[in-house]
Structures are given as C-alpha cells and as structure tokens.
Design goal:
Helix content is 75%, strand content 0%. It is mostly helical. Helix 1 packs antiparallel against helix 2, helix 2 crosses helix 3 (52-60) and helix 4 runs antiparallel to helix 5. It is globular, with a radius of gyration of 17 Å.
Length: 140
C-alpha cells in the first residue's frame, strides 16, 4: 500500500506528464491521442493527489459545475474525433474551474525575472480582471 506522501508525488508527476502531453498535442496540430492521454493523466493525477470524493466535488461544486460540464464535454468531443473543438471547450472549462486561482497566479508571476516587468502593464491587468470578473487590482 502506498503512503499518503507517495500518492501525492505520483499525483504531481501525473499532472506534470499531463501538461507535457497537452503541450505536445497542441504543438503537433491537435494530435487526438496525445490530448486524450493528457486528459487521462490529468484525471488520474487529480485522483492521486486529492482522492476520488474531493476530485468529484471539485468538478460538481455549485459555482464550478459549468466548468466541469464543459471540461467533460470537451473530453467526449475529443473522443469522437474533433480534437480542436474539444480542446477549446476544455480550456474554457478549465478557466471557469480555476477562475478564483487566476489572480493569485498573476500576482505570483510578478516575481518571475523577465516576465514580471512585462505583465505589470495596465492593459494586461485590465484583461486579467475582465477574465476573472473582478474589479480589484492584483496586489504586487
């Protein structure tokens, strides 16, 4: 039996592999099999990281149900051989699911060398605030 720490390491590894497969799938002109493998690794990694019930609750929570439905609808569309449309739906679903996390990610990216000074531009800040639906500027 795996310990809790081992499961978390496996979950993070699977999520990393998922990101790699998504990137390769897009770079290779929406390769269906790579995007499907990325989805499988993402779901398995999420399960290994937080468990089945918390993963399920994440996708069907009241405020995130739309994002969960769009993500799985995109997955089904990819299975039925339309990877570009399915991928677009999945990206929108992921943005809806992680909408509350985007401002924290944006604030964290201020400290990245060569990236931070460029994203402090007011037009980019306005676009991020529109995306997440808030009027509060991110703290620096």
């Amino acid at each position: 039996m795996l310990s809790l720490e081992d499961r978390k390491k496996i979950g993070i590894g699977l999520l990393s592999i998922s990101f790699l497969f998504f990137t390769l799938g897009v770079l290779l002109i929406f390769d269906r099999s790579l995007i499907l493998m990325a989805n499988m690794c993402f779901l398995a990694g999420l399960y290994a990281l937080v468990g089945f019930s918390r993963s399920l609750n994440f996708f069907i929570k009241k405020g995130k149900l739309k994002g969960g439905v769009l993500y799985f609808l995109g997955f089904l569309i990819i299975v039925f051989r339309h990877p570009f449309i399915g991928f677009c739906l999945q990206i929108y679903g992921i943005l809806v699911l992680f909408k509350s996390f985007i401002p924290f990610l944006y604030e964290w990216s201020y400290n990245i060398p060569f990236v931070g000074p460029h994203i402090r531009d007011n037009t980019i800040i306005k676009k991020v605030m529109e995306l997440v639906g808030t009027r509060r500027k991110p703290d620096v």
